[in-house]
């Protein structure tokens, strides 16, 4: 990687941490300059605007979250076990980007704010739902998940519950609320989602 590319990547990774903690509106160029160690011109050499940087920073943060949440699931053969492992991991392992879930943070801040960042958050949310839906659908084909389950609905229920648990946890300042949500979700997966062995 050339020096210019390394600098650009450094700015993206640093901006992801700053923006995820303080938000787009709450992060001025002075904060980004201080965190990256670059002057304004040094940042704008790589990005046309603060919005362009914020979009790339979000995409980086989301890719890191995807690796953390889904990267280890391919090694789990049973779809119901994958869902349980996903839920447990979500509750026990914090986001790799300081400040919590970038999808939740960006979506809440920009639901009536920056349209480009709202679209990033919406697309990321939908991407997670598609991944979970595929796990569920594949599990139904292998008779690991009950046939009456609607895959997209279960995916929405699981992910929305976990994101709600993150919000509750942020209000409390402890991961206990998220862990409580995850425990109930795992019990639900075992009782209502996993196909019964005949």
Could you describe the 3D structure shown?
It is a single chain. The protein is mainly α and 198 residues long. The protein has a domain at 58-193: Orthogonal Bundle (Tetracycline Repressor, domain 2), CATH 1.10.357.10. The protein contains nine helices and no strands. The longest helix has 27 residues, at 115-141. The radius of gyration is 19 Å and the shape is elongated.
**Low confidence ranges:** none
Order of helices and strands: HHHHHHHHH
CATH superfamily of the domain at 58-193: Tetracycline Repressor, domain 2
Top-tier CATH class of the domain at 58-193:
Mainly Alpha
Q: Largest sheet, if any?
A: none
Assembly context of the chains: single chain
- Looking at the structure, the CATH topology of the domain at 58-193 is Tetracycline Repressor, domain 2
Average pLDDT score: 91
Characteristic terms for this protein:
Tetracycline Repressor, domain 2; 9 helices; mainly alpha; 198 residues; 73% helix
Topology summary:
Layout: H1 3-22, H2 29-36, H3 40-44, H4 50-70, H5 79-92, H6 102-110, H7 115-141, H8 151-172, H9 176-193
Helix pairs in contact: 1-2, 1-4, 4-7, 5-7, 5-9, 6-7, 7-8, 8-9
Question: Would you summarize the structure shown here?
Answer:
With 198 residues, this protein is mainly alpha-helical.
């Amino acid at each position: 990687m050339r020096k210019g590319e390394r600098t650009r990547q450094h700015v993206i990774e640093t901006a992801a941490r700053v923006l995820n903690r303080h938000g787009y509106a709450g992060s001025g160029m002075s904060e980004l300059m201080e965190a990256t160690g670059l002057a304004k011109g040094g940042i704008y050499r790589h990005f046309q605007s603060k919005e362009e940087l914020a979009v790339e920073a979000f995409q980086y943060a989301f890719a890191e979250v995807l690796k953390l949440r889904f990267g280890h699931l391919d090694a789990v053969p049973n779809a119901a076990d994958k869902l349980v492992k996903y839920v447990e991991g979500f509750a026990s392992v914090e986001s790799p980007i300081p400040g919590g879930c970038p999808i939740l943070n960006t979506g809440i801040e920009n639901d009536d704010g920056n349209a480009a960042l709202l679209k990033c958050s919406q697309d990321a949310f939908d991407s997670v739902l598609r991944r979970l839906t595929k796990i569920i659908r594949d599990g139904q084909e292998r008779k690991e998940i009950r046939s009456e389950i609607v895959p997209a609905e279960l995916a929405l229920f699981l992910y929305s519950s976990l994101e709600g648990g993150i919000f509750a946890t942020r209000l409390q300042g402890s991961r206990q609320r998220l862990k409580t949500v995850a425990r109930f979700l795992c019990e639900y997966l075992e009782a209502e989602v996993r196909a019964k062995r005949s």
